[in-house]
Design brief:
- The protein has about 425 residues and is mainly alpha-helical.
- It folds into two domains: about 160 residues, PX Domain (2-Layer Sandwich); about 200 residues.
- It is built from eleven helices and five strands.
- The chain is elongated and about 125 Å long.
């Protein structure tokens, strides 16, 4: 592990990153409403893990076996918090916010809510599985394998720190900026902001697409009802041929409505969730960059404080001092030995300068180490993000191809029957 003695930096070293790479596939599925010991209801998710890592198969030598456990949202939240505490320089993938999802879905036990959350939780675990450091964490293995998770959970919760001091530091430096920012990090922030803007725009566009599809599907359903009524009107007369053609045409309209609904379900339950999750993931990256800046600000402020202390000491040695004429006269009238007082101030400043010098060295090491770990993390983020976008856009294309192929077959048959 790469660490600074102060215990602030902790992340994977090159040695850890060069360990054997194992396949780790995680699927979250089958959300089920359950009742807890105290009578409260919650949703349980089935988490299936397929890996060739022997450590995951301690009680089963067959590495092809799929490991299945059931976890609830609070379990994943605990996993997130533990990873955040153990790997402060890593971008920990965000979880879907509980309150936001409740607001959107209206009912946290509805199929729409649980399916969207299920997909979002899978995105969370997939990102961890693709991360070269987080995927090797002991807590992840316990989470994915252990049948005694509830027992482990009590111990984890008791030992989890609150990190109040770090939160306070972050708040104090919230309105401060780094004096000297490297070109490399300026470029990273610019690319991050552009990606965030693009994803946000896509999210807005596809929300409109989903609403438009809902409206069109509803119109097709109304058209189908009207054609059905018309079919019933002509079915009892001598227009049997017309009745059959109306029925064939109506079947085509029905298939079009169903197909549009299926496409819309994919967009709403998966693609839009992917976009929103990526927006949150980008924000996690932004927070890491801010934390990196905070370490740099800490160093710069210490450096500035040390410079002021040295200047004050040098002025006192030169005989200028920091006291004004009135203060000097008052001290003289009070019988204070100004020369002795000056020497005492110089001695105190010498002690302070020595202490600040040591703190500055540590702060420099911390800032430099954090910067290097952040650059590694940016590289991991880019790799995971690229893989995600490729898969998400591939699924989007596949679903549209499936829809149009089905419609082509449907309306080819309709055209044949009508002619």
């Amino acid at each position: 592990m790469a660490e600074v003695k102060a215990g602030i930096i902790k992340a994977g070293s090159s040695k850890e990153e060069n360990l054997p790479i194992y396949k780790l596939e995680i699927i979250v599925s089958d959300p089920q409403k359950r009742t807890g010991d105290q009578g409260t209801s919650y949703v349980s998710y089935q988490i299936s893990t397929k890996t060739d890592n022997p450590s995951y198969h301690k009680y089963n030598d067959d590495t092809k076996t799929i490991i299945v456990v059931h976890r609830r949202y609070s379990d994943l939240l605990l996993l997130h918090d533990i990873l955040s505490n153990e790997y402060p320089t890593c971008i920990i993938p965000p979880l879907p916010d509980k309150k936001v999802f409740q607001y959107i879905a209206g009912d946290r036990f509805s199929q729409r809510f649980t399916q969207k959350r299920c997909h979002s939780l899978q995105n969370f675990l997939r990102r961890i599985s693709l991360h070269p450091i987080l995927s090797r964490s002991n807590i992840l293995e316990i989470f994915l394998v252990s049948n005694e998770w509830d027992t482990y959970k009590k111990s984890f919760v008791a030992n989890l720190p609150t990190n109040k001091e770090e939160v306070t530091d972050a708040f104090m430096n919230a309105f401060k900026a780094v004096n000297i920012q490297s070109e490399e990090f300026l470029e990273i922030k610019e690319k991050n902001d552009k990606l965030d803007h693009t994803i946000s725009k896509l999210d807005s566009i596809y929300h409109k697409v989903v609403k438009k599809h809902d409206s069109i599907s509803e119109d097709y359903a109304k058209l189908g009802t009207s054609i059905q009524d018309l079919t019933e009107l002509v079915s009892g007369s001598n227009n049997d041929n017309l009745s059959k053609k109306l029925k064939v045409f109506n079947d085509g309209i029905t298939q079009l409505s169903y197909g549009l609904n299926d496409l819309n379900k994919f967009l709403d339950f998966e693609y839009l969730v992917d976009l929103k999750d990526l927006e949150h993931y980008i924000e996690s990256m932004r927070q890491l960059l801010k934390l990196k800046d905070q370490k740099q600000i800490d160093y710069e402020e210490l450096s500035e404080y040390l410079t002021k202390s040295i200047k004050e000491r040098d002025n006192l040695i030169a005989g200028y001092g920091s006291s004004n004429f009135l203060t000097n006269k008052l001290e003289e009238l009070a019988g204070i030995n100004q020369e002795a007082a000056r020497r005492e101030k110089i001695n105190k400043l010498e002690i302070k300068i020595t202490s600040l010098g040591t703190e500055l060295e540590v702060a420099k090491k911390v800032a430099d180490a954090f910067e290097q770990e952040t650059l590694k993390e940016v590289s991991h983020f880019d790799g995971i993000k690229t893989k995600e976008l490729k898969e998400s856009l591939g699924n989007l294309a596949d679903e549209h191809i499936k829809f149009f192929e089905k419609m082509l077959d449907t309306w080819t048959e309709v055209d044949k029957d009508l002619n």
